[in-house]
Amino acid sequence: MALWMSWEVAPIAVAGEDVDDIEGAVRALDQSVRRIQERVMAPMDGAALDESAQVIRAQMLSDGRAAVERGERWRTKVGQVEVTLVPLIQ
């Protein structure tokens, strides 16, 4: 199921894109987190961001997947990371 995904790592970055499925959304989040860690963060801050992202990944693959499969918008926030998933009508 195609989705619109938006994410924010406050106060550093905000982005969004269309993805094919939940796994694509997780990959997009992972890529963004890695870029932020490499370019903007001290190692200790990067580790805290990674912990938040790990929790969100698990939530995306469980609660997020269930919500979008029902056709519902889903949002979660852990630490400084927030993700929103919106199913796209095909």
Description:
The protein is α+β, with helices and mostly antiparallel strands. It has 2 helices and 4 strands, in the order ββααββ. The protein has helices at residues 22-39, 43-69; strands at residues 3-9, 13-19, 74-78, 81-87. A 4-stranded antiparallel beta sheet has the order 2-1-4-3, covered by helices on one side. A hairpin with a 2-residue loop joins strand 3 (74-78) and strand 4 (81-87). Helix 1 runs antiparallel to helix 2. The longest helix is centred in the middle third of the chain and has 27 residues, at 43-69. The chain is elongated.
Measured as a percent range, the helix fraction is 40-55%
Sequence stretches where pLDDT stays below 50 over 5 or more residues: none
* Strand portion: 25-35%
* SSE series: EEHHEE
Mean pLDDT: 90
**Gyration radius from CA atoms, angstroms:** 13 Å
Structural class of the secondary structure composition? alpha+beta
In DSSP terms, counting alpha (H) and pi (I) runs of 4 or more, how many helices? Answer: 2
CA(first)-CA(last) distance = 8 Å
Shape: elongated
Number of strands: 4
Strand order of the largest sheet: 2-1-4-3
Main sheet makeup: 4 strands, antiparallel
